[in-house]
Amino acid sequence: GQVIRLSDYRPPAFRIRHVDMRFSLNDGHTDVETVMEMERAPDTDAAEPLVLDGDALTLIALDCNGVAIGAERFEATPDRLTIRDLPPSGPFTLRIATRLTPETNTELMGLYRSNGVWCTQCEAEGFRRITYFLDRPDVLATYRVRIEADREAAPILLSNGNPGEHGDLDGGRHYAVWDDPHPKPSYLFALVAGRLDVLTDTFETQSGRDVDLAIYTEPGLADRAAYAMDALKRSMVWDERRFGREYDLDVFNIVAISDFNMGAMENKGLNVFNHKYVLLAPDTATDGDYAGVETVIAHEYFHNWTGNRITCRDWFQLCLKEGLTVYRDQEFSADERSRTVKRIGSVHGLKAQQFPEDQGPLQHPVRPRQYREINNFYTATVYEKGSELVRMLATILGEAGFRAGMDLYFARHDGDAATIEDFLTCFAEATGTDLSQFALWYDQAGTPELYVTEHFEAGRLTLSLRQSLARGAAGTGIEPMHIPVRFGLVGPDGTDLAAEPTAGTAEVEGDVIHLVTAEAEVVFSELAERPRVSILRDFSAPVTLRHEQAYEDRLVLARLDPNGFGRWRALTDLVGEALRAASMAGAGRPALDPRLIEAVVACAAEERLEPALRALMIALPGEAEIARLVGSNVDPEAIHQAREGAIGAVATAGAETFRRVRDGLERSSGNFSPDAASAGRRALSNALLMYLSAADGTPALAAEAFRAADNMTDRMAAATILAHRFAETPEASEALDRFYADYAHDPLVLDKWFTLRATVPSDATLDTVRDLAAHPKFSMANPNRARALIGGFATGNPRVFHQKDGAGYRWTAERLGELDRLNPQTAARLATAFRSWRSFEPVRQEQARAALSALASRPELSRDLRDILDRTLS
Ligand code: DPP
Ligand code: ZN
């Protein structure tokens, strides 16, 4: 396929000022008429033809200024419309008619039908599947959209902007008009039509304007949108208070759709959501689901300013809106919930998703320089590492400086299609800071290593820091970057010493060391005694920390670092390293030493720690995380055994404590509340239940918890213990059958059941997933269901996916080949489960290579999947 390069960027030769669209929706086909008010861009060649993007389109009619364009003046293919001899200057009007069949659109890009509902997805390049257009984010137009449909089939007709006139038509049909006064790129276009229920509310903005809020769902489910509505209103308040950003239309509509490639989409005034991120009830959704809905609702709402009012010049700048908006949603969640717990969750996610990407064949910089398929760049690097870069900017500039830069960005670039350079320039100007070195973070791929050593002598502590970056698959630069290193010097009583540096080669500002060279030193003098160094607090930079620190010191920090994140990091790093060593040493070696076990057990009972944090501290790193720590020649079987051994050891040592703590936790009393504190208590209680079940060695406790559960969090936790730890016991089968019988009608809960069964770490699971792929409730066409089964297996079941005979790889690759024929975007996304294949031991590497090569040898693969496979195998 063709490579698109950032260096080839040219501004558009034509402008589209305004778009007037008419959609006539019918069963079996949709007619689209698009009228564009256009003109040539100044300084472009008057003879240059207009080249519009298309994708699988059929042209029905074409005219300019009301006159049909003769066949000799244009050329139409499914993916391009070229028109010659357009007016050399001045405005002109182009009218294009196309006919679509949304019913057969299984890619779920452009206009498609989901359970009978017409809906659209246009980011990144879906609008060109609706009409021929300059489908690029730097072409901004106002839109007026008229939708006609059968009143019975589609009583609800929605598009972007504010509602205009509506009324009845002949033959049982009706129409509605929508006006979007804010110029927007085509990727933010949306249309939804169908039979939908609605939950409504209102919001008064800080300047006193009333906004009508609505969340549309499939019939009978609107009451499940209540928490999403609450999260929306809290997001609107937060963006006003924190960033001074007010909403700008009369209405804000959200629609929950059951077939959706992404989590959600920030279309102007009409967000379209995967229903997974809208619909919640205590009986069907876990605490994790509640937190996910809050995050995604906030994320898409925040895009209204960071993404929509200020959009991206080109898709290479994707992190301009995504990294910044993830940062904003993380800050929102931190303010609404627990900052420490939120930060741990974000760092955990970064290490689990972004680090392997950054260290494997799919490596790319936060701002890529080239792509073959832009859909494959909605990645953890663009989103999560992109957010870390914004967070570092805030750390480097301080709260006031960061806010000043944001204010300037909003003031200067409102209405623009901007670049990373535009963004950074605002911060540089607002604070008088040179950010040219910081900008390297956007262009240099890879995870820098940060080496720290300490030397203490005669009251003098010297910290030596060194950074290094290895060149990886992306082949980008390896220059030293600006790494902000937050730190604390912890005294014997567990408080931070107020020590100022007295010498050194690195600048220190408050609790941040600015490492801007390859190596630097910081010296603290006249210390009464040797402090424990708590480094990289709050994960102040996305680096791999290599801190040469005494085991004793680390154990002490795990117990009394006053920084909650620092405690979590100290303890889980120790546990992770122990599990890494045990996995590499092979069977028979106990993974954790008694003091580490004691530290884990003690955390569970530490009353001054919030329960959610205790739950995180006592959780052992997952098998995929341990595999990442091992790094090469990975044996997933050895990892599984080592981790199981460690769970057994902690469970045995802690049983009494765990029982006492669990009994003492306030039990949910039938009055379910999804708030963070209640969720934290459930998280701790269920983490303890896992250990207690392991100590007991029977399914009895989990079976009892499953029966007693009055909410999905507790039910899911108990079912997971039964299915994963007591597979093939009658208790496990009974629970899985009960779960299915109770929820077979509820697609979102049924997804959990598919994943639960696909993730059982036992030899029988390969047969299970084969059966599940043929199950009447399985559908390859529904992305959530495909992800639940195939993704659940490939990313959530390391032991069986990486089975030594390669059967797990082959099964997955075959399913990806099937999925690719329906939905390339989802197939390509799931194929990234193979990205770390070269880190495994040779037999598995060979099996993975064979499975991937067999898939790659199919001639009919999509560009999406082909791109991922080529890069993964290269
Ligand atoms: N809908 C996706 C997101 O919000 C892509 N923009 O991140
Ligand atoms: Zn986004």
Tell me what you see in this structure.
The chain is α+β, with helices and mostly antiparallel strands. It has five domains: 19-285, Sandwich (Immunoglobulin-like); 311-443, Neutral Protease, domain 2 (Orthogonal Bundle), CATH 1.10.390.10; 449-548, Aminopeptidase N, middle-beta domain (Immunoglobulin-like), CATH 2.60.40; 550-697, Alpha Horseshoe (Zincin-like fold); 746-874, Zincin-like fold. The chain is built from 25 helices and 33 strands. The strands form eight sheets. Strands 6-5-9-3-2-12-15-14 form an eight-stranded mixed sheet, with no helix packed on it. Helix 2 (287-302) crosses helix 3 (318-336), helix 15 (700-708) runs antiparallel to helix 16 and helix 22 runs parallel beside helix 24 (842-856). The longest helix has 34 residues, at 380-413. The chain is globular and about 85 Å long. It starts with a strand and ends with a helix. The mean pLDDT is 97. Diaminopropanoic acid binds next to strand 20 and helix 2.
Write the layout of secondary structure elements.
Elements: E1 4-5, E2 14-26, E3 29-40, E4 50-53, E5 59-64, E6 67-68, E7 74-77, E8 80-83, E9 92-100, E10 110-114, E11 117-121, E12 141-150, E13 156-159, E14 162-168, E15 173-184, E16 191-194, E17 197-204, E18 210-217, H1 226-243, E19 251-257, E20 264-265, E21 270-274, H2 287-302, E22 311-312, H3 318-336, H4 339-358, E23 370-371, H5 380-413, E24 417-418, H6 420-431, H7 440-443, E25 449-457, E26 460-468, E27 483-490, E28 501-504, E29 507-509, E30 512-515, E31 519-524, E32 532-535, E33 544-547, H8 551-560, H9 564-585, H10 594-604, H11 611-618, H12 623-630, H13 636-664, H14 676-696, H15 700-708, H16 712-725, H17 730-743, H18 747-758, H19 765-773, H20 783-796, H21 798-801, H22 807-822, H23 824-831, H24 842-856, H25 863-873
Parallel strand pairs: 2-12, 18-19, 19-21, 22-24, 25-33
Antiparallel strand pairs: 1-23, 2-3, 3-9, 4-8, 5-6, 5-9, 7-8, 10-11, 11-16, 12-15, 13-16, 14-15, 17-18, 20-21, 25-26, 26-31, 27-30, 27-32, 28-31, 29-30
Helix pairs in contact: 1-2, 2-3, 3-4, 3-5, 4-5, 5-6, 8-9, 9-11, 9-12, 9-13, 10-11, 10-13, 11-14, 12-13, 13-14, 14-16, 15-16, 17-18, 18-20, 20-22, 22-23, 22-24, 23-25, 24-25
The structure holds diaminopropanoic acid and zinc ion (ZN).
Zinc ion binds at residues 299, 303, 322, 325.
